[in-house]
Amino acid sequence: MTSVQVDDSKDGPGGPGGPGGSVGTKAPAATVEDQGYHRALGARQIQMIAIGGAIGTGLFLGAGKGISKAGPSLILAYAIAGVVIFFIMRALGELLMYRPVSGSFSEYAREFVGPFAGFATGWTYWLFWVVTGMTEVTAAAEYMTYWFDLPQWISALGFTIVLYLANLISVKIFGELEFWFSMVKVTAIVGMILICAGIITLGFTDAGDTASFSLLWSDGGFFPKGLGGTLMTLQIVMFAFLAVELVGVTAGESKDPEKTLPKAINTVPWRIAVFYVGALIMILSVVSWTNFRPGVSPFVAAFDQMGLQIGAGIVNFVVLTAALSSCNSGMYSTGRMLRDLALNSQGPKLFTRLTKHGTPLIGTTFSAGLMLIGVWINYQWPGDAFNKIVSFATISGMWAWIMILVSHIRYRAKAARGEVAESSFKAPGAPWTSWFALAFIGMVIVLMGIDKDARISLYVAPLWALVLGVSYLVLRSKNPEGAAFAKR
């Protein structure tokens, strides 16, 4: 491709893009020149990437299953999980202000936990987004059949090509796409909240006669399935928040990371309060929780109860947008993760190549190709084998959170001893908040093992761990530099 420029002097172990000094030095925050990326993402785009990362099909579609399992108490599950997510994001924020790099939590795992932790985190997060991209582009193609009688493979191919080219041209286009994808999701939720508020206060539409906040406790109480039912929804809730950490991957390409990233992270509480807790309170105050079923969007069910027949079309458009947003994020993050691994001698060196616009050419192309292969596999064999791979997304996404928290705890200990520079954005209550978040994630994993629908994730994880272990042993024997502690 004519736009490719390769500068190996940036990518080598002794260059600015790779290892170069000792971990114990108080080095200043990394700049974009250190890795070759362009700082093209502005505050507006970072804010919407942060918002969009917390809003996806887990809310628009998955919440229906959660409501049927826990009733109105699902609201409490989202609120508690939201607090934990905030702890995770503040831990990530402190690390980002210590050293804002595109490799993000993979870099921090490598520096503060060990070379294998960085290796495992980078490759696991890459696989998480490849698998997610496979499923989301397939879902997007299915959503298109609501309006058009097209073979799904045509839509899937078209979406993948468009998003691939957009990500390859420049990071700014990625940011603009995420901005508008997120805007659609935000507008839909705010619109639903306003409609519900109008029904409750003014009584219009078919649901006006029964709409009341008392619906939150009148049909079997706030905990109609007991506390156990609420606990069993936590893995559904945590899955809905996967990708909120994506804002950390943008650190190396943000125009002013010292200002934009803390501001984006500090908006996490109100985002969760409005878009999850607020939206569910309003919906469940208009429609009794007993009317919701697994596999049916709570937004569609609410629109039907209100007598608004356009609801299905609106929600289909919104979930199409959410799926494309997820694919777009996958294209973006996979290329960066592969390049970070390559820069640290933990992946093929060809993944270090950038286009003249500062986008990772080979890594993005390789990942996009795998996503298309996954779509074809899903069409040909949509059975258990593919579902087992897809189920891995939940546990692999949570692995990134675990590494963020462990890295943060280790970083705090080193900073207290004066071995590394202190961050300008300290997490309140740390490191205890990070320990609490780790314990919470551990509880969720245990609950996943109890839930027969969720435990498949735990079956797939050991297989991937075995692949990583063997690969790392091969790496250590052939390239000791990649198995050494990261140096800067």
From TrEMBL:
Subcellular location: Cell membrane
Keyword Nucleotide-binding listed: no
Cellular component annotations (GO), alphabetically ordered: plasma membrane
Biological processes annotated in GO: amino acid transport; transmembrane transport
Domain (Amino acid permease/ SLC12A) ranges: 46-476
Regions crossing the membrane: 48-67, 73-92, 112-132, 152-174, 186-207, 227-249, 270-290, 310-331, 358-377, 389-411, 432-450, 456-475
Residue ranges, compositional bias (Gly residues): 12-23
InterPro entries: AA-permease/SLC12A_dom, Amino_acid_permease_CS
Record keywords: Amino-acid transport, Cell membrane, Membrane, Transmembrane, Transmembrane helix, Transport
Lipid bilayer topology: Multi-pass membrane protein
Region of interest called Disordered, as start-end residue ranges on this chain: 1-28
Family: Belongs to the amino acid-polyamine-organocation (APC) superfamily. Amino acid transporter (AAT) (TC 2.A.3.1) family.
Name recorded for this polypeptide: Amino acid permease
Organism (species): Streptomyces tsukubensis (strain DSM 42081 / NBRC 108919 / NRRL 18488 / 9993)
